[in-house]
Amino acid sequence: MKNQLDQLKEMTIVVADTGDFESLKAYHPTDSTTNPSLILAATEQEQYKHLLDEAIGYGKKKGGSHPLYHILDKVFVNFGLEILKIVPGRVSTEVDARYSFDVEGSIQKAKNIISLYERAGIDRGRILIKLASTWEGVLAAKRLEKEGIHCNMTLLFSLPQAIACAEAKATLISPFVGRILDWYKKAEKKEYYPPAEDPGVKSVTTIYHYYKKFDYTTQIMGASFRNKEEILELAGCDLLTIAPPLLEELKGNTSLVSRKLEPVKAKASPIEKIKIDEMAFRYLINDDAMATEKLAEGIRKFAHDIIKLEKRIRVQL
């Protein structure tokens, strides 16, 4: 009998949510995602110190008054390059969260990251640039996609964000299942939700149905899982990015995995199209306390971890 991980791979592209190379070798995912928190944790491990050291050397050679700008991009790309030696598909590399409300800054960062990968001989088709799903992030993605730079829209917690990203023709969105659950557990003072009633699962299911109903090409990659049951409830989603402990749980279980999300069922859903412009986007997110709070919190957390990484680099400079 196949384990649950292998069964899941037959209906969903499995992506590893890690910056740890040994985990990638163990679970054979198609793609891999990283974020500032994962990279920060990885740089604290001795076996990856050389990737940070090389980036610092690169930044010093680039010169200028802001070597950190170049060093941070190179650190993220260095990890991405190592990951691409292991996975057959794509790696997602995140733009500094401090550019979440800066269209031009995000575009410049994205182009710099792509340039570093291309100089290392990697085709841009294997890179996804991660941008926060703010209105500014959406505008940046729209322009980048027109230039053949593929975007993964992260910190996504609501249907309005998902619609805006799809209208911008972003390659991929990453709705954060577990962080939605965290918010509702705290807000509703509930310790447990049945898997099918998990608020994060329901959010991604709604987005999936909307996308397939209206034939959007943007792919959906469920992310930020808190338990194995959330993953299994989204079996059939375009992609799922999963942390190593949960990959191990799936690998160690041979129970049957049933497909939960199917395009045919989505097509039959009685859904009305929603028009999203900037005013609607900002109003609808503001009207959703969970989306508002988790988006702001996510940007703060990623920015905080970038600043921590900068401090570590400054010591070496």
Detail the topology: elements first, then pairings.
Elements: H1 4-9, E1 13-17, H2 21-27, E2 31-33, H3 36-43, H4 49-62, H5 67-84, E3 91-94, H6 103-119, E4 127-132, H7 135-146, E5 151-156, H8 159-167, E6 172-175, H9 177-188, H10 199-213, E7 219-222, H11 228-233, E8 239-242, H12 244-251, H13 263-267, H14 278-286, H15 289-316
Parallel strand pairs: 1-2, 1-8, 2-3, 3-4, 4-5, 5-6, 6-7, 7-8
Helix pairs in contact: 3-15, 4-5, 5-6, 6-7, 7-8, 8-10, 9-10
Query: Architecture, according to CATH?
Result: Alpha-Beta Barrel
Taking the sheet with the most strands, its summary is: 8 strands, parallel, barrel
Overall pLDDT confidence = 95
The name of the CATH topology is TIM Barrel
Runs in which pLDDT lies below 50 for 5 or more consecutive residues are none
By DSSP, the count of extended strands is: 8
Strand content: 5-15%
**Percentage of residues in helical conformation:** 40-55%
SSE class: alpha/beta
Q: Return Rg in Å.
A: 19 Å
